[in-house]
Write a structure and sequence with these properties.
Number of domains: 2
Number of strands: 5
Mean pLDDT: 91
Helix content: 25-40%
Strand order of the largest sheet: 2-1-5-3-4
CATH class of the largest domain: Alpha Beta
Radius of gyration: 16 Å
Strand content: 15-25%
Oligomer: single chain
CATH superfamily of the largest domain: Beta-grasp domain
Distance between the termini: 49 Å
Low-confidence stretches: none
Order of helices and strands: EEHEEEHHHH
Structural class: alpha+beta
CATH topology of the largest domain: Ubiquitin-like (UB roll)
């Protein structure tokens, strides 16, 4: 049975280093709360099934699909979105590597690719090409910029370890 979206609850979250409390509907996903209640549009709505990766965020440093995570299920945990990594003036090293490698075409997958890369490099600071491809294999890119994306991850390795 699907979760009811009729009753309202208050959800206390820690998003991008900031404690926030938002009224939300029971059963609302983290993606819904991030985009609709907190105006954080880095995570994208793609498939709604947790399969494409465009909604990826970090929960306690681990990549998670925000479209299938109940907002109430991550209360009190550290959530990081694309907006929490860096700024326009000072992008996170992974964001800068994706810019330098020109790893975007339409850009829809980039949120997931960048967030998955940040999680990968936190766990495996010097991944092999095979580890990179495996870590990104569940993030779909319809434009075919996979070569540039892998290049961006390789560029990220030294920048993140500094």
């Amino acid at each position: 049975m699907a979760a009811s979206l009729t009753a309202s609850v208050v959800v206390a979250l820690r998003v991008n280093g900031r404690d926030v409390t938002v009224p939300s509907m029971t059963g609302a996903t983290l993606l819904h709360v991030l985009r609709n209640d907190l105006a954080l549009n880095g995570p994208k709505y793609g498939c709604g099934l947790g399969q494409c990766g465009s909604c990826t965020v970090l929960v306690d440093g681990v990549a998670a699909r925000a479209c299938v995570v109940p907002a109430t299920g991550v209360a009190g945990r550290a959530i990081t979105t694309l907006e929490g990594l860096g700024t326009v003036e000072r992008p996170h090293p992974v964001q800068q590597a994706f810019i330098d490698a020109q790893a975007a075409q339409c850009g829809y997958c980039l949120n997931g690719m960048i967030m998955a890369t940040v999680a990968l490099l936190a766990e495996t600071p010097r991944p092999t090409g095979a580890q990179i491809r495996r870590a990104l294999s569940h993030n779909l890119c319809r434009c075919g910029t996979h070569v540039e994306i892998v290049d961006a991850v390789l560029r990220s390795i030294d920048a993140v370890s500094r």
